[in-house]
Write a structure and sequence with these properties.
A hairpin with a 2-residue loop joins strand 13 (275-282) and strand 14. The longest helix has 77 residues, at 25-101. This protein is rod-shaped. Among the domains are: 84-163, no CATH class; 167-292, Glucose Permease (Domain IIA) (Distorted Sandwich), CATH 2.70.70. The protein has helices at residues 25-101, 125-158, 161-165; strands at 5-10, 19-24, 176-179, 182-185, 192-195, 198-201, 207-209, 214-222, 226-233, 238-248, 255-256, 261-265, 275-282, 285-287. By secondary structure, the protein is an alpha+beta fold. Strands 3, 6, 7, 8, 9, 10, 11, 12, 13 and 14 form a 10-stranded antiparallel beta sheet that branches. Strands 1-2 form a two-stranded antiparallel sheet. The protein has a two-stranded antiparallel ribbon with strand order 4-5.
Length: 296
C-alpha cells in the first residue's frame, strides 16, 4: 500500500537552494492530535487555575472573617466576665444593705464574704458561645432581681435617715484587712480561737474614725485591747469597739458623727503591729463587721 505524504516546498526570493520538507499524513495527524490534546489540557488547567484562584480568595476572606469573629467573641466574653464581676459586687453590696435593713440575718448568708467563684472554660467554640449566652441570660435575670431588691431597699431607707446614720457602714481607718472575723489560729498562742472583730493594719498615728453617729460610752486601757473606745448607737442598738489605739481623741459622754476622728492607730495591748481591732455588736452579740462596711 502506497503511503501518503505531504510536501512543503520553500523557495527563497533571492538566489538560493530550494528546500523540500516531506511529512506523512499519519505523522501530521498525530502532531495535530497531540496539539489539540495539549490545547485541551491547557484550557482545563487555566479554567481550574482561575476557579481555584477564586476559591483561594474566598478562603482567605473566610479566614479574615473567622479571625475577626474570634476577636469579637473574645471581646464579648471579656465584657460578660466584666459584667459578671460588677453584678457580683452589686450582689455583695445588696447583701450588706439587706442585713442592715433587717431583711436578712447574717447567719443566712453562706460562703466566705468577698470571695468569688471561677467558671469552667468550654473546649469548643460552639460550646463557648452557648455557655456565654446562657451566662448572659442568667446575668440578666440576676441583675433584674438585684434591681428590684434595690427598689425595696430604697423605699425602706428613704424614711430611715436617723436609723441609717446610727448604723455602722464605713471603714474605721484606711488600711489593709489583716485578719477577718471568725475562727483563726491565734497569732500569739497558735491555738484555734474565735476572733470577734476584724483587724485593719496601717501606720501608727493614722486616724481612726467613728463608723456611725453615736455616743462614746467608754474609753479604757487593758492588757488585751490596749487603749479602747466604745461607741453606742442607741437608735439602732449597735455598739462599735475600736482597740489598740495609741491615743484617745474623745471622752465618755461625747456625741460624735460618722467620720469623726476618735483616736489614732497604735499597737497597745496584745498586738504585734500597728492596727485597729474593730467590732460591731448588737444586743451583746458580736457580728461580722464585713457586712457593715459599704466602702470596702
Amino acid at each position: 500500500m502506497q503511503k501518503k505524504y505531504l510536501s512543503l516546498i520553500i523557495i527563497p526570493h533571492k538566489k538560493g537552494k530550494q528546500r523540500n520538507f516531506t511529512v506523512s499524513k499519519k505523522a501530521l495527524q498525530f502532531t495535530a492530535g497531540l496539539a489539540a490534546f495539549a490545547f485541551i489540557l491547557l484550557t482545563l488547567f487555566l479554567i481550574d487555575y482561575f476557579l481555584m484562584n477564586g476559591t483561594r480568595s474566598k478562603y482567605r476572606q473566610m479566614m479574615v472573617d473567622y479571625e475577626e469573629q474570634g476577636q469579637l467573641l473574645t471581646q464579648y466574653k471579656e465584657s460578660i466576665d466584666s459584667l459578671n464581676s460588677r453584678i457580683q459586687d452589686f450582689e455583695r453590696y445588696a447583701k450588706k444593705l439587706n442585713i442592715m435593713a433587717g431583711f436578712k440575718a447574717e447567719d443566712m448568708i453562706k460562703g466566705e464574704p468577698g470571695v468569688g467563684g471561677s467558671s469552667d472554660v468550654p473546649q469548643q467554640a460552639i460550646s463557648e458561645t452557648q455557655t456565654d449566652l446562657s451566662r448572659l441570660n442568667k446575668l440578666g435575670e440576676k441583675a433584674e432581681g438585684i434591681d428590684k431588691n434595690f427598689d425595696v431597699l430604697n423605699n425602706f431607707f428613704e424614711n430611715q435617715t436617723l436609723e441609717l446614720a446610727q448604723t455602722p457602714s464605713i471603714m474605721p481607718t484606711q488600711g489593709y484587712w489583716s485578719s477577718s472575723y471568725g475562727w483563726r489560729d491565734d497569732p500569739f498562742t497558735g491555738k484555734r480561737t474565735f476572733h470577734r472583730g476584724v483587724d485593719i493594719a496601717t501606720q501608727t498615728g493614722n486616724p481612726v474614725i467613728a463608723t456611725a453617729d453615736g455616743i462614746v460610752i467608754q474609753t479604757k486601757s487593758d492588757k488585751i485591747g490596749g487603749r479602747t473606745v466604745k461607741i453606742s448607737h442607741p437608735k439602732t442598738g449597735f455598739v462599735t469597739v475600736y482597740c489598740h489605739l495609741s491615743k484617745y481623741l474623745v471622752k465618755p459622754g461625747q456625741k460624735i458623727k460618722r467620720g469623726d476622728t476618735i483616736g489614732l492607730i497604735g499597737s497597745t495591748g496584745k498586738a504585734k503591729g500597728p492596727h485597729v481591732h474593730y467590732e460591731v455588736r448588737l444586743d451583746g452579740k458580736s457580728l461580722n463587721p464585713w457586712y457593715y462596711i459599704l466602702d470596702y
